[in-house]
């Protein structure tokens, strides 16, 4: 039978052991916690995760919508111009002016636009707002003007990049699409897709120059291709969106049946825009 002193000694020993173990465990826990804190800390010079700005999910919606604007709404859409005029056109339609001075100032600007351009702006604006309703909430709000301008600039960059990407895909096929009967022959000289730049394209190419020639000047081009082509290149014959190119009109020689008294007759029925429209329909399928 053990003595009381022996028992007390054993008890004290056990107690000391437990106490030592507890202190050791506490030190280990603190050390582990300290290491854990260190592992989550950012390296020197890096902003802590909690303080970093969050990604604006709305911006992704704007960018995704911008990719479809040149494909489904307007290939050459200029958002800054559109958002300058379209809201004024809406106000004009509703008569919702804040003051007579505002109305007078707006009408002076709108009177400079053609009826066709007003219709184009109004139609495009409605489609884009339907596609991205958040844009409509920023229009007319002075506090969100800077954000609106920033978003429109970002979207415009995406529109340009998308148009360039789609057009680059078209370049490989333009030699066939631009030929009246590609099953027999493509355009001459052929387009070499491996060569970068436009030195052999546009008005630098004899057949493409004819297609790009304003339809009002097509008869002149057919009569004297060399001289008319020079005038296209040096700007003596103006080429603009308002002067429809020959390729937009029907005919084996696009635009050959153009009637200046009925400019809509045969418009958008040329074989080139029809073939290109099928091409871009395929592009939409590629990106879906």
Structure description:
- Mean pLDDT is 80; it is low at 1-55.
- Helix 3 (79-94) packs across helix 4.
- It is globular and about 60 Å long.
- The relative contact order is 0.07.
- The chain has 12 helices and no strands.
- It has helices at residues 4-40, 57-73, 79-94, 100-110, 115-131, 133-138, 145-171, 174-177, 206-212, 218-223, 225-234, 271-287.
- The protein has 288 residues and is mainly α.
- It folds into 2 domains: 57-162, no CATH class; 174-287, no CATH class.
Overall body shape: globular
Distance between the termini: 89 Å
- pLDDT averaged over residues: 80
What is the overall number of helices? 12
Low-confidence stretches: 1-55
Structural class: mainly alpha
Q: How big is the Rg?
A: 35 Å
SSE layout and pairing:
Blueprint: H1 4-40, H2 57-73, H3 79-94, H4 100-110, H5 115-131, H6 133-138, H7 145-171, H8 174-177, H9 206-212, H10 218-223, H11 225-234, H12 271-287
Helix pairs in contact: 2-7, 3-4, 3-5
């Amino acid at each position: 039978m053990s003595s009381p002193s022996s028992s007390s000694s054993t008890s004290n020993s056990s107690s000391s052991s437990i106490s030592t173990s507890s202190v050791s465990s506490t030190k280990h826990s603190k050390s582990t916690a300290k290491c854990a804190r260190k592992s989550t800390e950012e390296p020197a010079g890096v902003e802590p995760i909690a303080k970093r700005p969050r990604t604006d999910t709305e911006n992704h919606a704007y960018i995704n919508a911008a990719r479809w604007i040149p494909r489904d709404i307007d290939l050459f859409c200029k958002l800054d111009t559109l958002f300058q005029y379209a809201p004024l056109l809406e106000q004009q339609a509703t008569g919702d002016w804040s003051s007579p001075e505002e109305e007078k100032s707006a009408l002076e600007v709108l009177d400079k636009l053609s009826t066709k351009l007003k219709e184009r702006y109004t139609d495009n604006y409605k489609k884009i707002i339907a596609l991205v309703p958040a844009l409509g909430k920023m229009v007319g709000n002075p506090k969100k003007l800077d954000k609106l301008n920033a978003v429109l600039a970002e979207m415009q960059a995406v529109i340009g990049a998308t148009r360039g990407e789609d057009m680059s895909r078209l370049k490989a096929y333009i030699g066939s699409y631009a030929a009246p009967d590609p099953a027999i022959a493509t355009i001459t000289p052929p387009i070499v897709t491996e060569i970068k730049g436009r030195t052999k394209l546009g008005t630098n190419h004899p057949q493409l120059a004819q297609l790009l020639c304003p339809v009002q000047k097509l008869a002149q081009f057919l009569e004297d291709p060399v001289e008319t082509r020079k005038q296209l290149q040096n700007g003596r014959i103006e080429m603009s969106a308002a002067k429809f190119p020959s390729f937009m009109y029907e005919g084996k020689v696009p635009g050959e049946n153009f009637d200046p008294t009925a400019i809509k007759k045969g418009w958008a029925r040329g074989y080139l825009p029809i073939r290109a429209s099928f091409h871009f329909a395929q592009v939409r399928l590629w990106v879906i």
